């Protein structure tokens, strides 16, 4: 339990800016066998990835959790302790291979169930935190697999109202950019036509957050890379602010690189499409900011989400030092949450970068 609260709960709390997984969830676990075993399972999994425990210990806790949780879900699926247990088990599976989650059947409640549970309990800050965490996991898998995820609620105003009721403007802003990322994933990899109207609407939302977000979301310290530094320094007041910026940058990166390929229709003749060079230039700027933020928050969960930028745009990093630091961020995340970056991704990047000298492990 101590390992969970000290080492793992920040992974969840950074997504929402609360301390529910540090404080509330352990309290609930004292009366929930399923949740307790889920917490022990993820702790054992983390320790096994670091070589401090046998993998079989994690599997025993997972089985013990299943035995209690499955009957519970039939009658009390909306209860926070059961939702949290499912969320944690989903991450346990993702820590080895995100594909295992999809193959594991209905034990992993769909995103719609988590959303419905929050909607039925709109004043529950914990329900909100659990939903945003499970949405984060869906986003990560969808990004890696280049697939759409279940449609985010397009009429999401109720989410912002619910977060306002439970206190926290910062949580509202974070929710906005997280939902924007979900929508951009569905735009990029879904079946609906990539029209200019859709693209411009998502770009409008992106620009609006970029220029109208609360000032406290800006870095408290930022400077361009000094000699010997591959990326700019970007330090934020809280992990939530940093996480929101990473999420915003990923959504914008995805949008830029899925600009419609057809000319704008006549009623949008004032629109000037971005050139490929403009797209690559802004994508590279966003990637460097994401990785600079990850390095500035190296002891937080922020580097985990930053791996998505390396996988997506690592080919744009042309200097060896930047490549090695980016590779180091992937490597560090791999040691703690193996499934975040597929093993073949390391080989792919080395081939793209034409490395003939082994990775120097500069971090």
Annotation keywords:
single chain; 363 residues; mainly alpha; two-stranded antiparallel ribbon; 16 helices; globular; Fun_TF; Transcription factor domain-containing protein; nucleus; transcription cis-regulatory region binding
Structure summarized in a few sentences:
The protein is built from 16 helices and two strands.
Structural category is: mainly alpha
- Number of helices, counting only DSSP H or I runs of 4 residues or more: 16
**Quaternary status of these chains?**
single chain
Order of helices and strands: HHHHHHHHHHHEEHHHHH
What strand line-up does the widest sheet have? 1-2
- Bulk shape: globular
Rounded to an integer, what's the Rg over CA atoms? 20 Å
β-strand percent reads: under 5%
Query: How can the largest sheet be summarized?
Result: 2 strands, antiparallel
The mean pLDDT is 88
Q: Compute the separation of the termini in Å.
A: 30 Å
- DSSP strand count: 2
Instruction: Identify low-pLDDT runs.
Output: none
The amount of helix comes to: 55-70%
């Amino acid at each position: 339990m101590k390992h969970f609260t000290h080492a793992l709960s920040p992974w969840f709390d950074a997504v929402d800016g609360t301390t529910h997984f540090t404080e509330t969830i352990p309290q609930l676990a004292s009366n929930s066998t399923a949740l307790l075993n889920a917490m022990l399972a993820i702790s054992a999994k983390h320790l096994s990835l670091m070589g401090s425990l046998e993998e079989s210990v994690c599997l025993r806790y997972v089985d013990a959790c299943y035995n209690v949780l499955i009957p519970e879900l039939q009658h009390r699926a909306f209860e926070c302790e059961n939702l949290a247990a499912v969320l944690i088990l989903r991450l346990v599976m993702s820590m080895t291979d995100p594909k295992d989650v999809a193959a594991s059947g209905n034990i992993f409640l769909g995103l719609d169930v988590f959303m419905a549970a929050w909607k039925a309990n709109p004043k529950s800050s914990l329900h909100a935190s659990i939903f945003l965490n499970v949405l984060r996991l869906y986003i990560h898998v969808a990004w890696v697999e280049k697939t759409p995820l279940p449609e985010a609620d397009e009429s999401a105003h109720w989410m912002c109202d619910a977060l306002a009721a439970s206190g926290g403007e910062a949580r509202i802003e974070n929710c906005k950019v997280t939902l924007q990322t979900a929508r951009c994933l569905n735009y990029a990899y879904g079946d609906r036509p990539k029209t200019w109207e859709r693209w411009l609407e998502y770009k409008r939302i992106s620009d609006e957050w970029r220029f109208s977000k609360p000032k406290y979301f800006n870095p408290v310290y930022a400077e361009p890379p000094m000699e010997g530094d591959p990326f700019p320094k970007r330090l934020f007041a809280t992990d939530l602010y940093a996480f929101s910026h990473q999420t915003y940058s990923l959504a914008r990166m995805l949008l830029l690189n899925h600009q419609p390929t057809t000319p704008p229709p006549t009623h949008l003749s004032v629109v000037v499409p971005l050139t490929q060079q403009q797209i690559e230039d802004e994508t590279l700027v966003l990637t460097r900011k994401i990785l600079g933020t990850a390095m500035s928050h190296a002891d937080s969960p922020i580097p985990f989400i930053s791996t998505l930028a390396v996988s997506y745009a690592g080919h744009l990093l042309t200097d060896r030092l930047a490549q090695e630091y980016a590779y180091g961020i992937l490597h560090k995340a791999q040691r703690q949450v193996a499934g975040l970056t597929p093993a073949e991704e390391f080989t792919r990047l080395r081939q793209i970068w034409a490395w003939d000298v082994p990775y120097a492990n500069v971090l």
